[in-house]
Known about the structure:
The chain is α/β, with parallel strands linked by helices. The protein is built from 16 helices and eleven strands. The protein has helices at about 1-35, 50-60, 65-70, 80-85, 145-155, 185-195, 205-215, 220-225, 310-320, 335-345, 360-370, 400, 405-410, 415-430, 445-465, 470-474; strands spanning about 100-105, 170, 180, 230-235, 250-255, 270, 295-300, 325-330, 345-350, 370-375, 395. The strands form two sheets. Strands 2-1-3-4-5-6 form a six-stranded parallel β-sheet. Helix 6 (about 185-195) runs antiparallel to helix 7 (about 205-215).
Amino acid sequence: MGDRNMQQSGLLCRKTLFCWFAVAISLVMLSMIYFGSTGRPRFVDHNLLPNDKVFSVIENRITPSRARNDEAVIGEPSLSDESARGEPETQNCDPSNALVKVYMYDMPSEFHFGLLDWKPDGNSIWPDIGTEIPGYPGGLNLQHSIEYWLTLDLLSSRFPDRPGPCTAVRVDDSRQADIVFVPFFSSLSYNRHSKDFPPENISRNKLLQQKLVKYLADQEEWKRSGGRDHVIMAHHPNSMLDARSVLFPCVFILSDFGRYHPNIANVEKDLIAPYKHLAKTFVNDSAGFEDRPILLYFRGAIYRKEGGNIRQELYYLLKDEKDVHFSFGSIQANGINKASQGMHSAKFCLNIAGDTPSSNRLFDAIVSHCVPVIISDDIELPFEDVLDYSKFCIFVRSSDATKEGFLMNLIRGISREKWTKMWERLKEVERHFEFQYPSQKDDAVQMIWQALARKVPAIRQKVHRARRFSSVLS
């Protein structure tokens, strides 16, 4: 009997120790889930738990360090390079780890996707881009489509399975934001709705600009900063013609400053963004110096106004030169494909000032790996604070280019070795001028966000200086 009691007592003791051991393990596992590997509390949305894919992304998210993003490294492999070696990893973009925190107004759809004939469902403001993305019109509309790509990127910035970098992320509280993003598709508004249609005596484009000014004036965010931390896209040179003189305290994203007074737009305050190229990207380009029979290529409108008069002068100087293709061309009659074929077959491509200092022709040449020859004295270039264009472009002053024989002597004097170095550099930098969704590492969308992030300290200084005496009166 005593032995039996001892056995039962020992068994009970072992069971008790096992229970306490199991409880201890459970507590340790729960604390690991709750605090995470950093020791800080991690809050898990239990509504996501049944979805194994989403849960695994949240638990294994990649959060790039701020120091790495602040370096704005340009020469590293892009996500498109990495994807060739395997599937890109996904991450949940945490605002605390983003390079720039962005507050985006929930503006009525008539300002953005409504211009693409998207119809809201009920009270929705934005399309459900997780299931369907409204298409953007092709042709020349595409070259000024930055508003579309940036807005899509912000809308997807907190998707739990979002691929790519955590550069810009949308935040819900404007006081936590570095910049305030205004999602007005101004270029599309100009391209599609700048004409008056009777009986209306005002175009839809002008009406939307009037509504935009009133909308912003009523927002607390605009009142708080005077618009200095607001970002407005006006990439088409004729977009925002009526509202720009009122909204000038903001940061404009432009293609150039050709039609802006310096007090309204300038390189210190605003941002130059690339055009969406229309020519086809030269994939797997092995067509080196000897494989490109055309020495110098230009296809486009020859007779232009304002600063574009130089095109006519160059046409008469170069039209009879050997190995030079200089012809009129347009988007009509398969013009984009013809231009792509020509650029892919040329060593150098002319980028000459037209009605404005810039055009998408420069970016067509870059993705065609045709060394650009830039003849535009007033041109401003995207991301020039981090990109040295002299490594892959030739710059010629207009006064020199129109001298008899100057341009051809310069081009013919460039050695095969120098051209090859520039050609190789073009293949390295082309990714910085690609607009795409989903956005990828160091592509055009990410480069724009990075450029805006570099402006944040100056923006913040302006906002703070403007508040010097406001606190006394409040």
